[in-house]
Write a structure and sequence with these properties.
This protein is mainly beta and about 130 residues long. Helices cover about 0% and strands about 50% of the residues. The protein is built from no helices and nine strands. The strands form two sheets. Strands 4-5-6-7-8 form a five-stranded antiparallel beta sheet, with no helix packed on it. The chain starts with 7 loop residues before the first strand and ends with a strand.
Length: about 130
């Protein structure tokens, strides 16, 4: 019905990942960074420019794409800032199974680095 429930939040800073379930405790984990897409192929396929639009007051281009990675597939809407070409939002409706177990995932991307803050109270799980 157009409404979403917050299931998990993630903050990524370099090779560190902070995540929490709902509004619970933050956890700190190490994440491997990909430097290329060699060996995994294209992630977005069959892209079509759906519209020029506004995301709040930000001019954006909205694309409809087929997303695929590691055996998962989704019909996705990708919102990209017109002026900077940076991702703003990705909403994926999974076809078949999903990596999270939920049929829809939405990613909101903060493009202003000074707004991204590491949670100071995260439980450090990098050595577990």
């Amino acid at each position: 019905m157009g409404e979403y429930e917050l299931i998990e939040t993630g903050i990524f800073i370099g090779d560190l990942a902070y995540d929490r379930q709902g509004l619970g405790r933050w956890h700190l984990r190490h994440r491997g960074l990909r430097k290329t897409v060699d060996g995994i192929g294209a992630v977005f396929r069959h892209c079509s420019n759906a519209s020029d639009s506004l995301y709040g007051a930000l001019p954006v281009k909205v694309f409809h794409v087929d997303w695929a990675r590691n055996g998962y597939n989704a019909k996705s809407e990708v919102v990209i800032a017109t002026a900077t070409a940076k991702f703003v939002k990705i909403t994926s409706h999974f076809v078949g199974r999903s990596p999270s177990g939920f049929p829809v995932m939405m990613g909101l991307i903060e493009t202003k680095g000074d707004r991204i803050k590491a949670p100071s109270d995260a439980v450090d799980l990098r050595n577990e």
